[in-house]
Specification:
With 143 residues, the chain is mainly β. It contains one helix and eight strands; from the N terminus they run E-E-E-E-H-E-E-E-E. A hairpin with a 6-residue loop joins strand 1 and strand 2.
């Protein structure tokens, strides 16, 4: 059986076209979810219902331990709550039990934060959560 620990996944982020990518730190959980809409093509001439794939959309949910000095969290905060803007995201999935290396799977996309939130539970650590709406998702590899 082969498996890779999720803790080796990585998100890099920047404001679209501005500066270098920085790591989003202290990630606890992240997930990339896609959906392909269906277009119905059934007509009177059809013998069964007919569908074809249509638009693709994707979202990414991220939970992090809150850190006021984390460069990635600052970029998200500044470009969502302060002045909403388009970001660029790279989501790297390692193929081995290590940080992502050349040739590993990467999803790159334009994105914006739709619902940043901060949690301060009585009996746990401060958390930062957000959902990104992704556009122009490209599957590539880590250079």
């Amino acid at each position: 059986m082969s498996c890779v620990a999720g803790r080796y996944g990585r998100i890099q982020i920047r404001k679209k076209g501005v500066g270098s990518f920085v790591n989003l730190g202290l990630i606890v959980d992240m997930s990339l979810s896609g959906n392909v809409d269906e277009l119905e093509c059934t007509s009177h001439d059809s013998s069964t219902r007919e569908f074809v794939p249509n638009f693709f959309d994707a979202t990414m949910d991220v939970s992090c331990r809150y850190c006021a000095t984390d460069a990635g969290q600052i970029i998200i905060f500044d470009n969502s709550i302060v002045a909403p803007a388009i970001l660029e995201i790279q989501f790297d999935l390692p193929g081995t039990l290590s940080a992502p290396i050349t040739g590993d799977l990467r999803f790159a996309a334009d994105a914006f934060a739709t619902s940043p939130s901060w949690e301060a539970p009585l009996d746990d650590t401060l958390m930062f959560n957000t959902t990104f709406r992704l556009s122009d998702v490209v599957k590539t590899t880590v250079p």
